[in-house]
């Protein structure tokens, strides 16, 4: 049996080894480092099924008072590892773009591009196991600093540089809110451990006003991370300007970790009725803004950015209704369909572009890529027999059970908006005349990855029970 904390150590060591090979081994195809990292992360992923259990939260002391290896954290460690593996596959496809944007044919710096997602993965794995505000903060900063570099990696591109600056400034602002909120909560309860904070809240003499103020500040800080309205202003420009694999990683990995932290942190505060009403309001604004802002978009990357905001709204509906299993299932579905759409976008953008019009006639140029994007778009829209349908179904079912009529009505109406802007892409691929007759090749690794994502998206849309059973355990 493997101690759970060794998983993150293995991932950190792997990241440092990739950096060392990048620095000292020059005569090597740097893409080999990505292939090696994919293999090593796969081994770590397999190792998550052979973990020794950690101590119970109530009896945790020392290191274990900061860290937990409960089923939720193990589930999301696998989530983070799988996401990082798929992103590294995307980065291999994106490597030619990176070299051309640097104005050189050498592979200088390419190893760093492959190493940074590994450090990000370690941060994500620490985040989902963190049960103390100190460790939550340190883990979030490990992830955020890695993303600072990744977002602005092609720094010769002015759009990328602008995206990096915006992400840096607004992330620093969100960190300030988070730290100030933690300070207030510590001042009221005298604790930073989430379990002990919950116990402290059982004391009727506690100052509820100060605790609520601290919780609101923490919610603001995490609101930036999950792209909730009104803290979403950085998302469209950063998503459009960042390298496409980084955008995919931001959209999936960062959002999933943010929601896991949100679920853990808000648990002791949900006994306060003001917090529930605030979450309902934020969920309502997020789901409406994200869908309406996506309607006029003509750039696919920007459309997916506003789509990410909309999906954050649906996830917040689940959080507000205390539907933890529904939120986790939705995150799994969102992982599959979003990574699939970005994987296709990377390949097509190198030959055509990122505009929706660049996908005109894609079904004739590459039937496989068109079918993959079709599955991604209909799943994001919530068409039956896809993972996205069951994700929305479970969220709305939880809202109905909690009698949140306003959220249900807003959710159903905005899903209809989603059908319009997602199916614009499908119409371009299958009904428009192609602007070029040139075929778009897909390498074997990317084809296998996309095929696996397609199968998983359809499988969860027909037979979701294995995931649901895993969530019950």
The gist of it:
The protein is mainly α and 473 residues long. 75% of the residues lie in helices and 1% in strands.
Question: What would your notes on this structure say?
Answer:
- The two termini are 19 Å apart.
- The relative contact order is 0.09.
- The protein has a domain of 194 residues.
- The longest helix has 32 residues.
- By secondary structure, the chain is mostly helical.
- A two-stranded parallel ribbon has the order 1-2.
- The mean pLDDT is 86.
- It contains 19 helices and 2 strands.
Chart the SSEs and their pairings.
Blueprint: E1 2-3, H1 5-24, H2 31-47, E2 51-52, H3 71-101, H4 110-129, H5 133-151, H6 158-189, H7 194-201, H8 208-226, H9 235-241, H10 244-266, H11 273-294, H12 300-320, H13 324-351, H14 362-365, H15 367-381, H16 387-401, H17 405-431, H18 444-462, H19 465-472
Parallel strand pairs: 1-2
């Amino acid at each position: 049996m493997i101690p759970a904390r060794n998983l993150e150590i293995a991932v950190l060591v792997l990241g440092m080894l990739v950096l060392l090979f990048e620095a000292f081994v020059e005569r090597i195809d740097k893409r080999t480092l990505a292939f090696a990292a994919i293999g090593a992360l796969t081994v770590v992923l397999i190792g998550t099924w052979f973990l020794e259990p950690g101590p119970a939260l109530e009896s945790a002391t020392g290191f274990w008072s900061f860290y937990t290896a409960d089923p939720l954290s193990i589930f999301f460690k696998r989530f983070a590892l799988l996401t990082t593996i798929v992103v590294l596959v995307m980065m291999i496809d994106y490597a030619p773009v990176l070299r051309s944007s640097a104005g050189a044919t050498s592979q200088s710096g390419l190893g760093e591009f492959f190493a940074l997602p590994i450090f990000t993965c370690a941060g994500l794995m620490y985040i989902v196991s963190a049960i103390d505000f100190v460790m939550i903060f340190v883990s979030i900063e490990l992830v955020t600093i890695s993303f600072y570099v990744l977002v602005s990696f092609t720094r010769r591109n002015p759009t990328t540089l602008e995206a990096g600056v915006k992400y840096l400034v607004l992330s620093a602002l969100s960190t300030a809110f988070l730290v100030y909120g933690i300070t207030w909560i510590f001042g009221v309860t005298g604790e930073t451990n989430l379990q002990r904070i919950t116990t402290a809240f059982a004391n009727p003499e506690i100052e509820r006003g100060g605790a609520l103020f601290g919780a609101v500040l923490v919610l603001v800080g995490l609101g930036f991370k999950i792209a909730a309205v009104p803290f979403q202003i950085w998302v469209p420009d950063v998503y459009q300007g960042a390298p496409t694999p980084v955008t995919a990683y931001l959209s999936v990995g960062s959002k999933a970790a943010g929601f896991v932290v949100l679920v853990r942190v808000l648990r002791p505060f949900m006994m306060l009725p003001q917090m529930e009403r605030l979450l309902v309001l934020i969920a309502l604004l997020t789901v409406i803004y994200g869908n309406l802002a996506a309607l006029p978009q003509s750039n696919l990357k920007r459309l997916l950015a506003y789509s990410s905001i909309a999906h954050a709204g649906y996830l917040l509906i689940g959080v507000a209704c205390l539907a933890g299993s529904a939120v986790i299932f939705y995150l799994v579905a969102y992982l599959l369909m979003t990574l699939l759409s970005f994987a296709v976008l990377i390949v097509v953008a190198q030959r055509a572009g990122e505009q929706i019009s660049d996908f005109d006639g894609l079904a004739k140029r590459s039937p496989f890529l068109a079918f993959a994007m079709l599955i991604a778009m209909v799943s994001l829209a919530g068409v039956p027999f896809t993972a996205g349908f069951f994700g929305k179904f479970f969220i709305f079912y939880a809202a109905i059970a909690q009698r949140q009529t306003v959220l249900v009505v807003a959710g159903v109406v905005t899903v209809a908006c989603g059908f319009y802007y997602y199916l614009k892409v499908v119409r371009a691929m299958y009904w428009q005349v192609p602007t070029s007759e040139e075929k778009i090749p897909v390498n074997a690794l990317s084809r296998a990855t996309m095929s696996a994502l397609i199968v998983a998206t359809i499988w969860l849309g027909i037979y979701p029970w294995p995931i649901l059973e895993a969530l019950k355990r």
